[in-house]
TrEMBL record:
Pfam families: HGSNAT_cat. PANTHER family: LD22376P. This is DUF5009 domain-containing protein. The keyword Transmembrane helix applies. It comes from Chitinophaga nivalis. It comes from the Bacteria.
Amino acid sequence: MTSQRFLSLDVFRGLTVAAMILVNNPGSWDYVYPPLAHAKWHGCTPTDLVFPFFLFAVGNAMSFALKKYEAAGNAAVLKKILTRTLLIFGIGLLLNWFPFVKWTETGSLTIKPLSQLRIMGVFPRIALCYGAAALLIHYLKDKGAFVAAGVLLFVYWFLLVVFGQGDPYSLEGYAGLPLDKLILGEQHMYRGEGVPFDPEGLLSTLPAICNVIFGYLAGRFIQEQGKTYEMLARLMIIGSILIFAALCWDMVFPINKKIWTSSYVLYTVGIALLLLSVVMYLIEFRGQTKWTPFFTVFGKNPLFIYVLAAVVVKLYALIRPAADQNLYSWIYENIFRPIGGNMNGSFLFALFHVCLFAAVGWWMDKKKIYVRV
């Protein structure tokens, strides 16, 4: 296997983190360009690609790291996988609880009760998907993990059809909803749909594991084939086949991020392969690297920068320049909205924060500070 380093993989990971910050932080949720908003239910917008791309990038990174761990023996590998899984999951719980206090209707601060702490979310899903994918890859190896991913996708489809109620692909009929209520409890679930429903729930984590596995397999394939046009062509062909298969499957099993359908997995992995192919062509084959530093600084500290961005925004919501306005809305209303109006101002708010955390990443890289989780 070649030991070549691929800058394009770092850029892809950094681009994904930058996109996560961009779509998570509009100046106002009332003014968001359609491509920067999630699909209401079925379908897929550019924003719906960001999280599965990140899981794909986790798999890419695993393809380099796991072989190093395995050289230390089985016990060391299991310890590393378990430790990292628990650490990322724990960070997710703390992030969900942060800033640990909230404003009451009377204008006083009170501790946020653990009885209402959301258990799942982005980081807990990353943790579970990483841990499960790493164990499957470690024990089943590459071909076995590929087969396991296929089994997971079809088993998930089977579970939704058999245990779903009415329309199994609707919010009300989704089989994962009663499972989350039973195991997590309604008070520990997300309520973005107006009812207790977690888009990062337990059952839909099963197909999400496949995004990591496919990312790992893509990373292994790239390393084995090296920087050749044949490798690049195969990546693009595989990506195109997956997109075609996903669109065919969509006719009976709709592409849907919120319940993370199996067709959605194939669709997002296919697009990830095509995007990665384009990035690799520009960087590895054409040598066009002048634009890459902006994204590599995100890719060198991906989880830390994402956590930092979430912490800063949560602190905005806690700080109140006025009794009826937090710092988040104050910045938008007094700085970005006057500059660009409602829609453009909201976008500029998000773009400013991407640049802000790029500057943090640049400083950390200059100081050789790399936070590994």
